[in-house]
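User: Once you have settled down, look closely at the record that follows, taking as long as you need, and be ready to discuss the fold:
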Amino acid sequence: MALKGTKTTIDNVLRTEDGGLYVTIKMRIEGKQIFKRKMLPAGLRVTEDRAEILRIIANLKDELAGKADPAPSANPRQRQVPTLAAYAEQWLASKSARLRSAVSDEWAHRLGAHILPVRVPAGVLGELQVDQVGRMTVDGWVAWAERAVQPNGKPYSPDTVAGWWRLLTQMLRDASADFDLPDPTRRVTAPDLSHVPKVREQVTLDQSQVDRLVELAERCVPDRAAEVAFLAYTGCRSGEMYGLHIRDLHLQEGHCVLRHSATRAVLEHTKTGSERDVPIHPKLTAILARHLDRKRSPAEAQSGLVFPNEKGSYRLEQSLAKPFDALSIALGQKVTPQVLRRSLNSNLLAKGYSPVEIQAIMGHTSDAMTARYAHIPIRRKAELIGSL
């Protein structure tokens, strides 16, 4: 009898009515469509056992492609050497257990879009076997990275390319250790993008503009206005806001505790790995009180979340895109959740508060990060010069 299941957060993995998990794999090999389905061991859970599930999927794909190694040798040189793409899948699965899901997804994107598909002198990088990747191969990738451009024709930022390079070298060094091969990144110079200027968005709002934006939200996007106000007056990350439970919101005492982050609708630790106590602005207190007093559906009430979606689940950060597009038009300039976070950082710094105090509110891990988020507007610079 055919299995029926619902989708999970892992591609190709479905859940049966009784809670079991199974994986379905389809591959076209030599012109033929090959299909395989396998029940996963009982007790595996999508969130906690993601790395193990991805490893099983990778093994199934290897079996279908006829690449399974049923009796691996103790000698690494006698193992069947996979393609770099196959190794990358298994490597990423092993790393995912220790990474936040957002980081794991970002690594998968970098590998799939900017590393493995690149054509190097010996062929497409991902199609080469691990032992075919040498220093000249890596040099070929570096040459591509130095001239790679975005779909709009502009070069990628040096920081972006540096991130690709760090990921590629980490993976290749692990591969050389796993198969007892020479390190192909040795004596290879990182991509040189010194000719590309570093550009970082520095848009910020002063406090009067922030207050104006919150007022506009009440009129333009009333059903999302409390979320806009929360981001504006706490400076928290969107995921931290969506992971906030009512039990951690203390309006009478004037603060809340950010313990988790709902990143891509999956509850995880905050970005810094620790909780923090954030004060609630008096203007925000009234807005949140009205938000909590509104009529909620049974699913929303049962969730215990401050900002659940209509089904009582965690909202996705991208659900803020349309509300902020509407607010940008109303305000007359582009504004995003990141702009609000940067604005609070800059406004607190302008008030003379110390980096340590600002870090405690913003959740930064260093003075350098606080400084990176800071923006000194031209009128403030003029005031400083005028005071001489």
